[in-house]
Amino acid sequence: MAMTQFRARALLLTPAGLWYAALLLLPLAVVLIFSFGERSAIGGYAPGFTLEQYANLPARFAAFRNTMTLAPLGTVASLLIAYPLAYFLAVRVSPKWKTMLLVLVIVPFWTSILIRSYAWIFLLGGKGIPALLAQIGLDDVRLLNTPFAVLVGIVYGYLPLMVFPIYVALEKLDKRLLEAAADLGTPPWRAFLQITLPLSMPGVLTGSMLVFILLMGEFLIPAILGGGKVFFVGNALVDLFLQSRNWAFGSAVAVALVVIMLITVALYTRAVKRFGASRDDVGLM
């Protein structure tokens, strides 16, 4: 009986396992192998075994610095905007308006991120917000092709991905806990800190990790709103693989990015367990 169950599970998991191996593990293995090679005389990859590519990683320090600075800032900024919005949608809005407002949050995803980013070029360019600021005496304000412009594009582009996990967590919140806290004389701000926020942390962590991981590989927004002056690791990879054709060094940069991702996921898992324990404690209260 046990052998039959094992075979059934293996049969069900085999297609997904082969798909996972072919589309994730195999490309990662190729990139890892390339990272220990060399650039050939005509570009591309030449077989070899050297750590020279990893030793040259500081040459792309600016790209890693920008990514590790703006990705967390973009995640935090998205969270600060998304949480009040998700709370309003989940707790304060009546059911008859909730669906329409949720659709409005999704609507930007119906348009290409490329078009939306180009719209911000006009808004942040000389004839947009800087022109309005000039009318009130703030001249020579430069917004486009700056880290601020990239941060604005990041928050605008990834905000829905932060809103929905938090909304789902808040939607599942047992309102009776808040009613009991109010009956016991707990102030609303303390009930939020002790009940609502801890119980919504799984959504906060999921949304934050989802946005952060995608931002680590972001290419389009820095390329358009950064104007070639604010490079992410994604921009560095495009340059190394498609322009300079240094596949070995590009692979080393990609491996370093994957390592950072793995460390982030490990910290994320640890945080989920910690807040899960806190959630259980709140539930026991």
Top CATH class: Mainly Alpha
Number of helices: 12
What is the CATH homology-level superfamily? MetI-like
At CATH level 2, the architecture is Orthogonal Bundle
List the uncertain runs. Answer: none
Q: Taking all residues together, what is the mean pLDDT?
A: 86
Please identify the structural class as seen in this structure.
mainly alpha
User: What is the rounded Rg?
Assistant: 24 Å
How many domains would you count in the coordinates? 1
Instruction: Give the biggest beta sheet.
Output: none
Strand percent estimate: under 5%
Following the backbone from N to C, one meets helices and strands in this order, namely HHHHHHHHHHHH
Q: Quick one: how many beta strands? A: 0
**What is the fold-level CATH name, i.e. the topology?**
MetI-like fold
Taking the alpha carbons of the first and last residues, their distance comes to: 44 Å
Helix content: over 70%
Query: Shape from CA axes?
Result: globular
Short description:
This protein is mostly helical and 285 residues long. Helix content is 77%, strand content 0%. Residues 64-268 form the ABC transmembrane type-1 domain.
Q: What attributes does this structure have?
A:
285 residues; mainly alpha; 77% helix; single chain; MetI-like fold
